Amino acid sequence: MTATLGHVRLAKDGGWEGEIRSLLMNLKVRFAPNDDRTGPNAPAFHVMTGAVRLGEAWEARWRAQRDRTFYRVSLDDPFLPGPLSAALFPREDGEAAQLVWTRPNPERRDSAEPVENSDVVS
Asked: pLDDT tens, 44-62?
């Protein structure tokens, strides 16, 4: 099952702004650029609601289209049983993006690693 969790638009001062909506969340969020990227595995964005950090987003590329970027997103909340893995897919024009979530396969639920589509590579 795949669900759209949110829609964001480019923010005037960098990053993305929009909303995440689900049964448990109805939040205004900001994907704030990580200005302190000290290593190659550092996230590209911090996912924020107000002053609270909900998660992180890492840049990734489509395997078939190496020039097409998307973001692997990890969101966490004390009310969730564990971190939620999602993906942020910018539109081709780069002005907006869609946050989607796919329910992991039952045999992979115990894994802490984000579920990745076979068509993508980090």
From this structure: 999 999 999 999 999 998 7
Flag whether 71 is in a domain: yes
Query: What is the Cα gyration radius of the chain?
Result: 14
Backbone angles phi, psi at 90, to 5 degrees: -65, 145
Q: How many domains does the chain have?
A: 1
User: Tokens 């068509």 appear where?
Assistant: 119
Look-up: residue for tokens 């000290």? 38
Q: What pLDDT, on the 0 to 100 scale, is given for residue 78?
A: 81
Q: Alpha carbon of 122 to those of 33, 50, 80, 86, 119: distances in Å? A: 18, 29, 26, 14, 11
**What's the rounded Cα separation, in Å, for the pair 115 and 92?**
24
Show the domain range for 82: 2-109
120 in any annotated domain: no
- Domain-embedded: residue 118: no
DSSP 23-80: SS-EEEEEEEE-S---STTS-SEEEEETTEEEEEEEEEEESS-TT-EEEEEEE--TTS
